[in-house]
Prior knowledge:
By secondary structure, the chain is an all-alpha fold. About 75% of the residues lie in helices and about 0% in strands. The chain contains nine helices and no strands. It has helices at about 10-30, 35-40, 45-50, 55-80, 85-100, 100-110, 115-140, 150-165, 170-185. The protein is elongated, with a radius of gyration of 19 Å.
Amino acid sequence: MAAVRLRADAERNRIALLSAAREVFSEHGLDASLDEIARRAGVGNATLYRRFPTRRDLIAAVFADRKATQVELAEHALAQPDPWPAFVGYVTALCELQAANKGLGELLVAVNFDGDERLAQLRATSQRRARDVIKRAQDAGALRADFELEDLWRLLMANAGVIQRSPDPRAWRRQLALLLDGLAAR
């Protein structure tokens, strides 16, 4: 089945909605006002819902490329010659994504994101590659042997809390340094 081409004005509206949604979700998180997204895009609510019938549809359209970034970060870490700095760089980059984008930060720690096949597939791939980064650092004797993928998600949840609640926008870096020091194999 051939992809349906949008009229030029409909395509402009779609692009404006995605751009506005990126900004609003980044600033306010995934529960941000859809009315605000439509307002910033310069379109009515009906246009938003015609293009993206549900909040999940809009979130998936906005963040599919950012979830792919998670996979790329893991691939980059796996290509590094030294497993420990690669692990540290990978975790730090994930935390930086959280700090830079509130919506993405929430999506990184979401228990699941049912309803969008693209995000579900990216999540599964991301988890496989994260396990590879973890195992490689453990096999090198650099990362605690008892660290698991679930611990990475807990670390990201803790980071999200620090980002959300600390008045110091750099506080997450201090917490991460302490956590990484505790994760290094002795």
